[in-house]
Amino acid sequence: MGMKLSLRHLSVLALASSLLPSAGIAQITWTGAVGPGIFVEGNWDLTASTVTMLDPGVPILDNVRFIGPAPDARIPDLAGQGSFQVGDGFGVVIDGMRVFAAADDGLGSEPGASVGITVEVVNGASFEPYFVVNDTWIDIDSSSQVILGGPGDPLNQSYVNMTLGARLEFRLEDPTEFRNEHLTSLTVDGQPAVEGTNIRVDAVGNQGSLVTVLAAPLGTNYCAANVNSSGVAARMAASGSAAVGANQLSLECLSMPQLVFGFFIVSETAGFAANPGGSAGNLCLSGAVGRYIGAGQIQNSGPGGTIGLSVDLTAIPQPNGFVSVNAGETWRFQCWFRDSSGGAPTSNFSDGIEIPFS
Fold first, then answer.
1. Is 199 found in the same domain as 223?
2. Tell me, what's the pLDDT at 357?
3. Does residue 247 lie in a domain region?
4. pLDDT (tens digit, 9 = 90+) per residue, 180-197?
5. Which of 8, 82, 209, 290 makes an SS bond possible with 175, Cβ 3.0 to 4.6 Å?
6. What was the pLDDT predicted at 111?
7. Total of domains in the chain
8. In this structure, are 207 and 230 located in the same domain?
9. In angstroms, what CA-CA distances link 323 with 266, 314, 336?
10. Last residue of a domain, which of 182, 214, 246?
């Protein structure tokens, strides 16, 4: 099965976020007022829709909302293999709650769909059908998961887009079956999934598999570092996402001396100062330089000679307080650490790394 990334389908995915609940949009909304049954009309708020009945295999001609903290919604054990069916071109949002199949049933668009449906799984939600079918486009955010319970192509004529932190599990498809049947139906942030490059596939027990997104290397190193007492120069590495909205940036300083303390520094402005204040290294920043010296941020390099930091892009330290990163800005990071030279204590620096944010 090949990925059909036509302009039509890219548009469907791009518009999926507009399906989040807002005033004036026709939709049916899950309440779970009388139990978990997904086909029980009393479990739904239908006041914003022309939909009056919900039956297995009958397309729901409206947008569908499962919004937490409502109770879990259950697709019951239907005769044969049935589905909760949503009409062609509509969307489903599963927001902060669980939607699951009790047995071997699932969810999908109607047969012969020309556009398909989107399923947004967001804000810690868990979507657990036995299968999805008929041009269903699932998008999993960084805090949510999809668990497909069935064997034999449970992602049938359907597609998944993931981002860093998202979780996709197949209960009865092992890694080989996933690669053969579903790898080409998966994207990461809109790009084709490539095992070992942007996804990792692990076995779960004897029959299942788990797909997670690999943190992408980010940034450009600049301003060469001097050799430290370990015999090599320390270097910076960054991974995660350069998208400001994702707020998923991780830093590492590698090849430091063992068992020394250090911390990260940050500025928008590149610079070069050799041996500042008697240091054995080079300062690669200038202008307003902030220091990560809050609780837990001054770290020991341990036996591996490495420290790391998860960066909050809404709280970049600067001399006059904290600032937020904005799209279009480039920020530069470096590591400053204790060292020794000729037996005398000193400090040293890694190289710098610059990251343009979008």
1. no
2. 96
3. yes
4. 999 999 999 999 999 988
5. 209
6. 92
7. 2
8. no
9. 12, 6, 21
10. 214
Lowest mean pLDDT among 45-59, 68-82, 254-268, 284-298: 68-82
How far apart are the C-alpha atoms of 153 and 177, rounded to whole Å?
9
Report yes or no on 86 lying in a domain.
yes
Q: d(Cα 131, Cα 151) in Å, to the nearest integer?
A: 9
Cα 119 from Cα 138, distance rounded (Å): 5
Amino acid symbol at 67:
I
Asked if 270 contacts 286 with a C-beta cutoff of 8 angstroms, the reply is: yes
Average pLDDT of span 27-54:
97
Q: Domain containing 333: what range?
A: 217-356
2 inside domain: no
243 with 192, same domain?
no
Name the residue among 203, 109, 93, 95 with its Cα closest to residue 159.
Answer: 109
pTM of the model: 0.67
For residue 223, is it within any domain? yes
Mind spelling out the 3-state secondary structure of the chain?
CCCCCCHHHHHHHHCHHHHCCCCCCCEEEECCCCCCECCCHHHEECCCCCCCCCCCCCCECCEEEEECCCCCEEECCCCCCCEEEECCCCEEEEECCEEEECCCCEEEECCCCCCCEEEEEECCCEEECCCEECCEEEEECCCCEEEECCCCCCECCCEEEECCCCEEEECCCCHHHHHHHCHHHEEECCEECCECCCEEEEEECCCEEEEEECCEEECEEECCCCECCCCCECEEEEEECCCHHHCCEEEEEECCCCCCEEEEEEECEEEEEECHHHCCCEEEEECCCEECCCCCCCEECCCCCCEEEEECCCCEEECCEEECCCCCCEEEEEEEEEEEECCEEEEEECCEEEEECC
Which CATH number is 266's domain given? 2.60.40
Structure tokens at 293: 């010296």
Q: Which of 181, 214, 247 is the last residue of a domain?
A: 214
Cα(92)–Cα(139) distance, rounded to whole angstroms? 10
Task: Clarify whether residues 228 and 140 are in a common domain.
Answer: no
**Do 109 and 82 touch, CB atoms closer than 8 A?**
no
Beta strand 145-148 with 167-170 is: parallel
